Amino acid sequence: MSSTLESAEHKALRTAVAALGQRYGREYLARVAREGGHPDELWADAAKLGYLGVNLPEEYGGGGGGIAELSIVLEELGAAGCPLLMMVVSPAICGTVIARFGTDEQKRTWLPGLADGSRTMAFGITEPDAGSNSHRITTTARRDGDDWILTGRKVFISGVDIADATLIVGRAEDARTGRLKPCLFIVPRDTPGFGRSVIDMELQAAEKQFELTLDEVRLPSSALVGDEDAGLLQLFGGLNPERIMTAAFAIGMGRYALARAVEYAKTRQVWKEPIGAHQAVAHPLAQAHIELELARLMTQKAAALYDAGDDMGAGEAANMAKYAAGEACVRAVDQSVHTLGGNGLTREYGLGSLITASRVARIAPVSREMILNFVSHQTLGLPKSY
Description:
51% of the residues lie in helices and 14% in strands. The chain is α/β, with parallel strands linked by helices. Strands 1, 2, 3, 4, 5, 6 and 7 form a 7-stranded mixed sheet that branches. Strand 2 and strand 3 (147-158) form a beta hairpin. Helix 8 (311-340) runs antiparallel to helix 10 (368-379). The two termini are 41 Å apart.
C-alpha cells in the first residue's frame, strides 16, 4: 500500500519498520498477551533502531521528525500484526507535550528516556463520571505552599503498571477568575497516595487498563508541565497526536486483517475457482482496501498539518482521520473474518480477536459521535445541543 505522496525517506521508513514487524508478528503479541506479559523485546528493538523516539527532538536523543514519521512506525507494526499501543501514549502524547511545553528540566529528565524506550509515561485524562466531557473533569489540583495537592479518579488508563510516571490532567483554580482550568502534572509511579487497580477487560491485550485514585497526592511545583495558564493549549497539543496515532493503529490493524483474507481468498477452493474469483468475496475486500487507503490519506494530511504547527487545522483533520480509520478498520476486520468463514473464528488464523480490538478505534480516545459533533459544530457551524 504505497503512496505517491510520501517522500523517499518515508517509504524507506515503512520498509524498514515492516521488516522489524515481520520478525515478530501477530503470534508474538498474542503469546505475550496470553502469558500476561509485555512486548518488551519488540519495544527494545524498536527503540534501538530509533523508531520509538522518531518524533522527539534530536538534542534529547530523538529522531527530530514528527507525528508523520511516528504514525508510519505504528501503522507498519500494526500491519505486521504487532502494534505497540504504548507508542500512542508515551512518545506521541507525553513526549510531544513535554517537548512542546515542558520546562528545560522536564525535557532533560524525560525526553532522552522516552526517545530510547528506557522510560515510558502513561496519560490520565478519562474519568468515571466525565466520559467524553473533559470539561467535567473533577480531579483537582490545589496549591499548598510551593507544592500541589492532587485529588481525584481516572479510568481506562493504559499501561500504568509499566509506566515510570503518568501525565495526569487535573483542574486548578484560576487565581484571577476563580474558575477551574486544566493543568497537566507528571506523577511518578510510586508517589504516595497514587493508587491503581486493573480493570478486567474482555479485550485481550498486552497493555492493561487501570482505574487510578489520587488521594491527596503531594507533588513539587516542578511536576506541573509548563505554564499553568496554557493548560488547554497543552492538552490539545497532546490530543491531536493521540487521534492521529489511533488512526494509524486502526489502519495497520485493518491492513493486517485484509492481507490475511486476501491470502486466504486466493488459495481457498471449494468450487472450480478460488473463492477470491467471486465478486461477492472480491468486491467487499476491494472496498475495504479503498476505505483504508482513504483513511490513510486523511491521516497523512492531519500529521502534515500538525507537524507544520497548524494546531487548528490539525484538530479538524485528526478527528476526521480517527473517524475514517476507525470505520475502515471495523469494516475491514469484519469482512476479513467473514471471508474465512468458520476459520475466521479460530485461534490458528488469529482474526476473531480483532473483532473486539477493532471496536476500540471507534470508541477511543473519543467516540465517533463526539467527532461528528466536532465536525458539525466546528466545520459546518451548526448549533450545539449541549
